[in-house]
Amino acid sequence: MKKLYNNISADQILKHIQYVPETGEFLWRERSEKDFPHDNFRITWNKRCAGKVAGFLASNGYRHIDVLGARFTAHRLAWFLTHGVWPEHDLDHINNDREDNRLANLRPAMRFQNLQNAKIRSNNTSGYKGVSRRKDTGKWTVRIREHGGRYRSFGQFETKEAAAEVAKAEREKLHGQFANHG
Please, which residues bridge with residue 17 across strands? Predict the structure, then answer.
């Protein structure tokens, strides 16, 4: 298999952790005598960790796993362990749940596609993605970011619900399978 970080292969990683593609869980495997300088350390480690969820949840919502002196994000590690290759670009969590590392929930994506699948921002005041109210006219406008970072406007509407319908339809045209409406 392809090597990565400090010449660590998938086979070496799989000696220490188990990945369950259906649940997205990483579990510590039981360690052998050769992994520890003293048998007491091995016994203690196996009692405390073997069979338990590997890694930790970082403040950004991603699970990180330290194994063999390297730190991996769980979703990228899941892809590598399953496909034998490290993803070239981003991996998108289809359901936007960074803790859900099931293989069925991961798909390769370019950065702009991954950003298109983002949730509604916390500072959104309309309740609809891409819809905002103009102060000067009081009307609701639709603006959607295109690939390349530019915004495209789709008109002004009397109600935010009408604007939201247009935003949803145009987002689906522009973003395809990566369209996220909120």
Answer: 28
Residue-level pLDDT at 5: 58
pLDDT value for 27: 97
Whole-number Cα distances in Å, 63 to 13, 74, 78, 98: 16, 5, 11, 8
Walk along the chain (182 residues) in steps of 10 and give the mean pLDDT of each run: 62 93 96 85 90 95 93 95 91 94 95 86 91 94 87 93 93 86 78
Phi, psi of 109 (to 5 degrees): -155, 150
pLDDT of residue 1: 37
Which residue pairs, CB below 8 angstroms and at least 24 apart, start in 156-165? 160/126, 160/127, 160/128, 160/131, 160/133, 163/126, 163/128, 163/131, 164/126, 164/128, 164/131
Is there a contact between 163 and 131 (Cβ–Cβ < 8 Å)? yes
Give me the phi and psi of 48, to 5 degrees please: -80, -35
